[in-house]
Design a protein that fits this description.
Structural class: alpha+beta
Number of strands: 7
Number of helices: 4
Distance between the termini: 47 Å
Strand order of the largest sheet: 1-4-5-6-7-2-3
Largest sheet: 7 strands, mixed
Order of helices and strands: EHHEEHEEEEH
Helix content: 25-40%
Radius of gyration: 16 Å
Amino acid sequence: MTAAPVVHADEATRAEILAVEERRQKALQEIDLDTLRDVYDDSLIHTHAPGLTHTKAQLLEHVATRAPYKGATRGELTIRVIGDVAIMTGRLTNRLGSPDGSERIVAGQVIQVLRRCEDGAWRFVSFQMTPDGEHVWTPTVEEKAGLDRIAQEEQK
């Protein structure tokens, strides 16, 4: 048995996955639980920026009772595919509601894993956000180039 190679998504697959991501973002903001049930696999593990981890049922309850998602902006996304699994990485800036009624911004890097299901649809199985934090090391040349790209994206 030969393992499937890791490749960048072709344009058609990339478009399908980006469409699912757009549906997810819109459904979170509109509290559209039917769409969220559809785009999240039953095996979903969703880890929020502060480390709180939810199953699919817990995340749906969180969205329904707290309505925290007010807006989202994505940076450049890299999508790699291994057979029927896609790994999407890139920046996410969330505008979130707080318990006191105020809003806050949480930004960072996100890893999202999707699988192509038996019905042909892509569904999210994993989500992990690492919020921006303190950088204690002076960036390497490659890290500096990446940070410069992020700064340019945020200025757009």
